[in-house]
Design a protein that fits this description.
Structural class: alpha/beta
Distance between the termini: 60 Å
Helix content: 40-55%
Order of helices and strands: HEHEHEEHHHHHHHHHHH
Shape: globular
Bound molecules: zinc ion
Strand content: 5-15%
Number of domains: 2
């Protein structure tokens, strides 16, 4: 009797497996973006948005993980009143939002200020690169996804440097020099305040100060023998792959960069707080960083 039951179960399992497509996958293999791109946006911006997403997918495709495998994107022009309120409430500005910690409950917000279209600000495009880079960071580091590491000058300095490298390469526009040049003197005198948002918001206009520190670290890594591309790979990718937290990031920093955080902060005293002194080369290609 038992044998017959086993046999029947086996047949049932076999027959089920033929129509399995609708069962949820336990280990999704592909990361999916869901696009909610509002008609209030200019059509040329919408076309460029998809071009940028394609370029980024070629450059740094997002790998699905068991905690992060899909992301809705909500984009609209600030001149309309929050058209996705029923989905994301009063979320505004540009961010990756959602309740930290829960599996796969995040979404990307891209509310583009209407002035950016009127005055052709490069930020209307660079913000796409910036937020995409945060998605990439989250896919590399579950602790970053979960909000277990703040380290603003590395996380925001990294995303803001990435967006500038993209704009430099694709639009021949030096976003570092023009839009990230308000570097505060605190980067020299008091760099540790840039580890937290709360202690540095007043002195980090468009993340200029965080970008300065990030680029200074790249310069220091080059002095230690890395090529420029290798140095950027260490700070944009390898560090996050080690999945740092607020409590162990200084150890990981030392292991990945072979320089302690204190040493690095001391070397900043040899710089002046000018973005011009740490600019990457204009010929640098993102493909050489993420090869
Ligand atoms: Zn950011």
């Amino acid at each position: 009797m038992k044998k017959i039951i086993y046999l029947i179960s086996a047949i049932l399992i076999l027959s089920c497996s033929d129509s399995e497509e609708e069962l949820p996958l336990n280990n999704p293999t592909e990361f999916t973006f869901e696009y909610n791109i509002h008609e209030s946006l200019p059509s040329d911006w919408i076309s460029e948005f998809y071009v940028i997403m394609k370029n980024l997918d070629d450059l740094i495709p997002i790998k699905a993980t068991n905690y992060f495998y899909e992301l809705p994107i909500y984009a609209w022009n600030s001149n309309v009143d929050k058209p996705y309120r029923s989905k994301i409430g009063d979320a505004s500005g540009a961010s990756i939002s959602g309740n930290g910690g829960a599996v796969n409950d995040k979404y990307m917000v891209l509310e583009i200020p209407n002035d950016e279209f009127i005055y052709n600000y490069m930020h209307r495009y660079s913000v796409i690169d910036h937020e995409y880079f945060h998605v990439y960071q989250m896919s590399l580091s579950k602790n970053f996804f979960d909000g277990n590491i703040e380290l603003k000058w590395m996380s925001e300095g990294g995303a803001a440097s990435f967006e500038s490298l993209y704009i430099q390469q694709y639009y021949s526009y030096n976003y570092f020099k023009v839009d990230q040049n308000r570097v505060d003197i605190s980067v020299i005198n008091n760099p540790e305040i840039f580890e937290k948002f709360s202690t540095s918001n007043m002195v980090d206009s468009n993340y200029s100060s965080s970008v300065f520190m990030f680029l200074a670290l790249v310069k220091e890594l080059q002095k230690k023998g890395s090529t420029e591309s290798e140095a950027f790979q260490l700070v944009l990718k390898d560090f996050w792959l080690r999945d740092p937290t607020n409590s162990n990031w200084k150890t990981i920093f030392l292991e990945v960069f072979d320089i302690s955080v204190d040493q690095f902060y001391s070397t900043l005293k040899g710089y002046t707080n000018s973005i011009e002194t740490v600019l990457p080369s204009e010929s640098l290609k993102l493909e050489s960083i993420f090869n």
